[in-house]
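Progress report, Aim 2. The chain analyzed during this reporting quarter is listed below.
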Amino acid sequence: MAEEEKLPIPPTFLEKVLFYTTATFVLLATFSLFAFLFLVPFVIEPAFTTIFMQFDPVGALCVTAQVKHLVGASNCTWASCREGCTKDLYECTQIRVNYKLGEYPNVTSTEFENLIRAERSLRRDYDYENNYEVPIDTIPEMEDQELPDAIPTGLQGNDSEWYFTGARLFPNVKGCGYPPILNCTIFYGKYRPLGTNYTCYYSRVDPGLVITDLDMWQNTLNLVYAMAIPIPSFIISVIYLTVAYFKIYNTEEESEQAPLQSDVEGMATGDDGKPTTPGSDTFREDLACFGHQLKMQLANEKPKEGFESNSPPISNSASLSGTKSSFVNA
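Predicted structure tokens for the chain:
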């Protein structure tokens, strides 16, 4: 008679808690790792670059001095603004500015308008007529303005009213972003007209780099959030999974193997606790009992297909009896 199939033992409450806890930490480690890899090029690296470039928090006065609209990958080595930080540039607009230092606080454009009203005279004193050429086909909205072919770039001496001329203008340190945070159409509409005055922030490391927006507090806060959440989450998940693998699950395997080990030890020792050897009486008795039990089990089970023709039960019984007698005689 075939033995009844054993039903699986339902998991206990502690086993369920252990399973769901392990699954949660596995997912947490996975998402933390991918989140960190995603934040590196978009948040962490720009934030560190902004800190390392050491932008002066005191705003300077910038005036748009040159605008170029170029086509071709070889010509577009940089762009003042681009939506998307990973795409290749085949068409770009480059804005260069002149700026001078002064006590220009970080204020809004409306508040700064009164401060720079006196600087409007720079447009009348600046000679644009002899140095500009109008590319109407590339920038139609600037038909009444002229663009310079080249302007001197670099730090100026004490006799010049400008601290730096020909600096590259960007909305941020990377010069790129994604809507709605950065809209290049609005950026160019605001800063591209020649002679426009506005607040800008220059880099002490590279004075030729100028940005229009600077918020060091928000920049530091974004950096802290981008590193303080995914990195500790990943480390905690790895620590738990390591402890669970070497301690919790390893302990359960040892507890399951303990009964089998005790059975093996019981067979290796006799009733008196002494170890059995192949030549001892205890070993022969155990082997004879084992042969008898095996013979009875084979006799009670239904013979399988082809079992009678290949290995008859009588032959097996005889062989088992012969084996038993040979061991007994030994």
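The beta strands are 59-71, 82-83, 91-104, 132-133, 147-148, 154-155, 164-170, 176-177, 197-202, 209-211. The radius of gyration is 42 Å. These observations will guide the mutagenesis work planned for the next reporting period.
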